[in-house]
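User: What would this chain look like folded?
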Amino acid sequence: MSAPSEEIWKSIQKAATRAASEEPFLATIYSLAALRGDSLAVGLCEVLAHHCANNTIKTPEIRGLIASIYKESPDIVESAAIDLMAVVERDPAATNPLVPFLYFKGFHALQLHRVAYFLWTNGRKNLALYLQNRSCIIYSVDIHPAAQIGKGIMFDHANGIVIGETAVVEDNVSILHEVTLGGSGKERGDRHPKIRQGVMIGAGAKILGNIEVGEGACVAAGSVVVKSVPPHVTVAGVPAKIIGKPLSEKPYAAMDQVWTDAD
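Assistant: Here's the prediction, encoded as structure tokens.
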């Protein structure tokens, strides 16, 4: 059975071939990012390096750094493939995997974070913080390199997402723009939210402190959450309160903030 990265790379290359014929003006981009490489890892190196390079650190240097990390930890690439599949499944704007691979900064920011997290956990904290800073500048997404993030994650639009140092985001979670997983003050230590699998967090929601959002829960747009949320409920408001349950058993996939009334 093929790995997720192999399967999705075939789809990306097929879409890139078609796109290059439809829009010759972008043919060079399609070639560099998708058609010349033989794997998702090679393509990701090209895309992220192109974004992160500046006058001080050039594209080949960033590309080589990311490639070395992917070689040492191929699971990072497989997580990226699962993230891409999640975006295609959940976002109607992602008509094929080439679209988020090239154009969705939420996907890009998440993949750059995976590289930074590897560096942070392997003792290269200054370089990890540098990549965090680059992500803030180029993607408007601020994720501390120590934050633990699972796979099957979608950052929809992504602008303004902030995720703190001790935050945990488990598998299969959807997070919209302007979401904060932050601390509640100046406390130190374990001070950020734990988002369990299957959660959806609506645009502009603020989840603050070392609290838990339970499996399969939904946080409505604009909510401020300062207390733990039980599994499989919908919360809304300032401060957030339980207002019902998600209509879907998989709110992260349904991407729907409609709820049933609380009992």
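The chain has nine helices and 16 strands. If you want, I can go into more detail on any region.
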